[in-house]
Amino acid sequence: MESLNFLLPQSEIPTHWYNVTADLPTPPPPPLGADGKPATPEQMNAIFPMAILEQEMSSERWIPIPQEVREIYRLWRPSPLVRAARLEAMLGTPAKIYYKYEGVSPAGSHKPNTAVPQVYYNRQAGIRRITTETGAGQWGCALALAGQMFGVETRVYMVKVSYDQKPYRRSMMRTWGAEVFASPSTLTQSGRDALVRNPNHPGSLGLAISEAVEEAASRADTNYALGSVLNHVVLHQTIIGQEAKKQFEMAGDWPDVVIAPCGGGSSFGGMAFPFYADNAAGGRNGKTVRLVAVEPTSCPSLTQGKYAYDFGDSSGFTPMMKMFTLGHDFTPPSIHAGGLRYHGASQLVSQLYHEGLIEVVAVPQLATFEAGVMFARAEGVVPAPEACHAIRVTIDEALRCKQTGEPRTLFFNLTGHGHFDMAAYDRYFAGELKDFEYFEYPREAIEESLRHLPNFA
Amino acid sequence: MESLNFLLPQSEIPTHWYNVTADLPTPPPPPLGADGKPATPEQMNAIFPMAILEQEMSSERWIPIPQEVREIYRLWRPSPLVRAARLEAMLGTPAKIYYKYEGVSPAGSHKPNTAVPQVYYNRQAGIRRITTETGAGQWGCALALAGQMFGVETRVYMVKVSYDQKPYRRSMMRTWGAEVFASPSTLTQSGRDALVRNPNHPGSLGLAISEAVEEAASRADTNYALGSVLNHVVLHQTIIGQEAKKQFEMAGDWPDVVIAPCGGGSSFGGMAFPFYADNAAGGRNGKTVRLVAVEPTSCPSLTQGKYAYDFGDSSGFTPMMKMFTLGHDFTPPSIHAGGLRYHGASQLVSQLYHEGLIEVVAVPQLATFEAGVMFARAEGVVPAPEACHAIRVTIDEALRCKQTGEPRTLFFNLTGHGHFDMAAYDRYFAGELKDFEYFEYPREAIEESLRHLPNFA
């Protein structure tokens, strides 16, 4: 019986993260402060520890993973590389399909890969409390888990409407000992101001960020953590692609196409960048690998955005980064793939796309659920809506292979399971997701918000 | 860095199930029909295929696992054997703690281990439709998954109150293509009768069984499947203990105590019986292993029940089995560990307990959640309420080892994750589970239902 699961022993958990900055064709444009001058680590030290800021700015190719972090990674890593043989058979494709399953982490997604080192470095710097924001709760869960592992108090500002309507990730955060507050809260000035304006304020991710940053900036023992977009976050996620390369060697195979969902960019970068390293060096045995980021048509920052300096958050608190952006005040339609609802894309992913070194595809929501259900019926695992985006493009590639007869090897990032997203599947089966189709390409909203870009493009 | 996860390659998925009947000190008492005469396979062939009934009655020690079943097992098996090193450190115990994690199956529990072969044998017998009942949905999910894998239509009668209040496992069954009906339904006579008596009938597991069995018995192309209690179900679960034995060899360790939750008995038997095989042969290197079944004090069939002939279902449709029972019309309090709310225990588990070959411990609900939260904070995984019962007893053993200084090796069955049970954790954190304490040992209800035992004890 052929093995479908390529098992990597825990001794093979990577010892270093891979920093793609070292292999970029040109140095990355620096982040800029509101004054248009390059932002310095010192400016950001109020809410991030120096070790993280050094990683953010580093151009070293390999950055060592602390032993304490690898010991926590052991709780669920290496994650499986699985051959989706039943999906191949269902599609009748000559393509081979593999996936990396990040849903095995206790939090159910790839997010703990960066939550754990972020909490670790903060703890090393003497920080006792970490704040963050969360929408549906995936990132909040990851940070709560990591906080518990290192004994750092975790305080999560959860968008009120999710806090009320999606209680189960909130319960999970509490199980791991985190404190969770509905945002807007009365704990911060930002929250109180919002409640004065509207006592029934439903909350927003931008407002929750403001609350978390305000608390972190106002207390010396407290820092802030972010779950995507920034360079150090993408860096931490590169253990995904590194493990996968070892597992493909075990399988005696190698991907022709690497496919991952792309919101802020860390799940795509984490999986694709270690393969990009080979491309940058002329390819593996002279052969390069296609790297495909998948975004929703409702929030198409890469395919429809502008490559320009913009703020990382919706309120304009952060330094500006040069990235593909829909404008920082663009509010994406509420698709179920909450992790892909970001107005921009990581500056590293943006730069590689700008230079023509990666591909990007945008897919509509309904088609992603169709793909997710097909995957669940073939392979068992019910995927998270974010992961369904990668599955859609993988299936489309596999069907193209069926037409052309090419036996390509396709590899996608199954970033998480859908156990906390079953309400979205319900709406799909009920036909209610069709209602979202008019959001698919929100041209006017994008044009409007692009007019508000800061003037440093 | 020491490995905590003992990885078994897929080539080591067991080729045979272990049938404990071959190693019982005395032959098991036969099931009896309502007339008091031994029930024959032919009588049950209306709803079960012969291949399953042969397994139910077999005394062969090893029963081959069909290749097609092993190929589906490959989607998630072998399941991990994990050393809970952080829990050990948290408790400060000299004991070593290991767990087998069955939550990695797509359905999130050990139930697919038997759903897959049950559907396979039905498919081989030409059956196109399978019916079953489900309460919270764990068994229904497992059968829906298995039905999808072999192209057998799956029809699940789900207790109405769960259908309405716990929609997410219902959505999961639909994602795998099953049809799910609120029970009582208008599809069966049993359902219609119940609705005539009470148009707002909330449903019950007994009634859902009646509906599923009625549909299966009335159609030649349709059979019925049960998720625990019966011998063939326990048999299929023995892959858990068999894999574990190979993994302990890899780890260079061996359990002194094997601990598993016990409702119908299949998760306990599946884990413990392969270790019992060594005990029956005089022990491994002369050393026997303690086998501990854990039941809730609110439904204490083994510790407070009577060893007597009783019906397997609450309505008296099934043959009678000799087992520890609280009486078939005992209704357990609605604790959150729905999988442990069964009035009896597998006749195999019952016989071994009667003969003094296994131990049983009953634990109260509140203490199980306390243990589950402790486990989640140490190891990450949030356990299902059923599994929390085994964790409670494991922690208690580990704390005894701390007192005595004995470095025992403890091994428990983490039968599933708690992703669909977060509402129960919420109630625990809110202090609401204290309300259940008066249920802890429902002495009067048990005495009352024991008076209704059939007269074949």
Note the main attributes of this structure.
homodimer, 457 residues, alpha/beta, Rossmann fold, seven-stranded mixed β-sheet, 19 helices
Short structural description:
By secondary structure, chain A is an alpha/beta fold.
Tell me what the structure shows.
2 copies of one chain form a homodimer. By secondary structure, the first copy, chain A, is an alpha/beta fold. Chain A has a domain at 5-9 and 68-108 and 232-450: 3-Layer(aba) Sandwich (Rossmann fold). In chain A, 41% of the residues lie in helices and 16% in strands. Chain A has helices at residues 41-44, 50-57, 67-73, 85-91, 112-124, 138-150, 160-165, 167-175, 189-197, 205-218, 231-237, 239-251, 266-280, 301-304, 347-354, 365-379, 385-404, 422-429, 443-450; strands at 5-6, 16-18, 62-64, 81-83, 96-101, 129-134, 153-159, 179-183, 222-224, 257-261, 290-296, 306-311, 320-325, 359-363, 409-414. In chain A, strands 1-4-5-15-10-11-14 form a 7-stranded mixed sheet, sandwiched between helices. The first copy, chain A, has a 4-stranded parallel sheet with strand order 8-7-6-9, sandwiched between helices. In chain A, strands 2-3 form a two-stranded antiparallel ribbon. In chain A, helix 13 (266-280) links the parallel strand 10 and strand 11 (290-296). The longest helix of chain A has 20 residues, at 385-404. Chains A and B meet through helix 3, helix 6, helix 8, helix 16 and helix 18 of A and helix 3, helix 6, helix 8, helix 16 and helix 18 of B.
| Overall outline of chain A | globular
* CATH T-level topology of the domain at 5-9 and 68-108 and 232-450 in chain A: Rossmann fold
**Taking strands numbered 1, 2, ... along the chain, how are they ordered across the largest sheet of chain A?**
1-4-5-15-10-11-14
The assigned CATH architecture of the domain at 5-9 and 68-108 and 232-450 in chain A is: 3-Layer(aba) Sandwich
Q: Compute the CA-based radius of gyration of chain A.
A: 21 Å
Distance between the termini of chain A: 57 Å
Count of individual helical segments of chain A: 19
Percent of residues in beta strands of chain A? 15-25%
The biggest sheet of chain A, with number of strands, parallel, antiparallel or mixed sense and barrel status, is: 7 strands, mixed
How helical, in percent, are the residues of chain A? 40-55%
Helix-strand makeup class of chain A? alpha/beta
Average pLDDT reading of chain A: 94
What is the chains' assembly state? homodimer
Which CATH class of the domain at 5-9 and 68-108 and 232-450 in chain A? Answer: Alpha Beta
How many DSSP-defined strands of chain A? 15
